[in-house]
Amino acid sequence: MPLMPSPPSLTERRAAGKALRKRLQRTDQGYWTPAGDRPDLVERLEAFNARRLPDILPLKWGRMSASPFTFFRGATALMAADIGPGPVTGMTVQMCGDAHLLNLGAYAAPDGHLVFDFNDFDESIPGPWEWDLKRLCTSVRLGGREVGCAESGCQDAVKALVRTYREDMARFAEMRGLDLIHFEVTPQAGRSVLTEVLAKAKRDTPDKLMAKATEVDGRGGRRFQLRPPLVRPLQPAEQAGLLAGLPGYRATVLPGRRQVLEDYTLEDAVFKVVGTGSVGTTCLLALFLGRGLEDPLFLQLKSEEPSVWAPYLPQAESLPNEGQRAALGQQRMQTWVDPFLGWTRFDGKDFLVRQWSDHKAAIEVELLQGPALAEYAGLCGGILAKAHARTGDPVMLAGYLGDAEKLDDALAAFATTYADQTTRDHARLQAAIRDGRLKAITGL
Predict the structure, then answer these.
(1) DSSP state at residue 234
(2) Last residue of a domain, which of 319, 335, 355?
């Protein structure tokens, strides 16, 4: 007599996924309209960023004002509020939380070979697979418009993304668990659109970063080059907080990596403004030296707030540290994870800690011209499917997605609708800046 009841068979799981179409049809995934009482945009943006550093927020508004695509990158919380209350199938995966074209990139696996995967997990949390896919599809639509692609080309690229997501999910549903764990996208994948990204990542070594980001300090050592307000020295309280937080960080990495960290000493640290969506968070860069100047280790310590999706999850995963939440999201979704990934807490804030710019590179949106947009969109769709298959039930998901193009068409329609809304919101942001309701700094 078995000690535990038998789990559902593959056939039963696939049928359960298909049955979810009765709860939410695939065609219904394409419907979205803004609420009639949608609050004032400026008030919403200020509320979403209330915990950010106020003196840096003008840089965020300036970067978001550049185009609808850059607005979208900085408005994850706005999209969460727009689609979070809507219907979902109920299948949970580990969400990236901010799935868009530029949040994937190349990096070095622990053994040094290059892979391509998601690389931003600030909003990562277990939640509906639809939210990730809809955000990624919208980013393709907006990214295509950014580089001047025809609407038909943008539409085809979104459909290529969803088709690849759907077809790869079916493939992952048939794959053994151990094979899925090791599935990766490498230079050998034959994707021409990755050629320049992977070449850039190969060139991005710690030695070159040392030459690019630091300078001689006059004492025989190196220090970060300062570029206020984007890169500035630490205040005494910030420096004290960093020193106090390092022991807690070391305790979160694996014992073997912890032993390596003990051979490195802190040489210099600065405050740096990063990204678009992350502007206003506390981000510190730290340079550690092992066996002299030829042995640098760069770490980034970035403050983490609760995921913007958490308010729309009935039972959001609760962890004692938001940096731990982001680190777990990265560990769950990536095939190969930064060996020095960890978290800590100081100055009343939670921090994610990881290597800074070690063999890392993302695509330039300007490269996504013509057929490259659809090729890259399909690649992103496959990587999202891989992450969702690893952290959800790929068999149930494949059962819901099916073989037909209904979901492809639906999400292409959603992406158009939400991209249009983003374009209107971007225009409202520009108007608010012109009217003086928001102060913006541009050109940095």
Answers:
(1) P
(2) 355
How open is the CA angle 351-355-358, to the nearest 5 degrees? Answer: 155
Sign of CA dihedral 354, 357, 360, 365: positive
- Residue 183: CA count within 13 A, CB half-sphere: 22
pLDDT digits (tens, 9 = 90+) for 47-65: 999 999 999 999 999 999 9
Residues 326 and 257 in one domain: yes
Task: Please tell me the distance from the alpha carbon of residue 299 to that of residue 288, in angstroms, as a whole number.
Answer: 8
**Whole-prediction pTM:** 0.94
| DSSP conformation letters of 194-233 | GHHHHHHHHH--HHHHHHHHEEE-SSSSEEEPPBTTTEEE
Rounded average pLDDT over 382-405: 96
The residue type found at 95 is M
Between strands 92-95 and 283-290, the pairing is unpaired
Length of the chain (residues) = 444
The number of angstroms, rounded, from the C-alpha of 13 to the middle of its chain's C-alpha atoms is: 29
The residue from 322, 355, 388 where one domain ends is: 355
Residue 202 class from Cβ within 10 Å (0-12 exposed, 13-18 middle, 19+ buried)? middle
Same domain? For 344 and 383 the reply is no
Compute CA distances 70 → 84, 93, 133, 205, 429, whole Å.
Answer: 21, 27, 19, 28, 12
Degrees to nearest 5, angle at CA 289 with 286 and 292 = 150
Does 83 lie in the same domain as 187? yes
Q: What is the pLDDT of residue 58?
A: 96
Question: Which residues make beta-bridge pairs with 296?
Answer: 289
Place of tokens 């609708």: 417
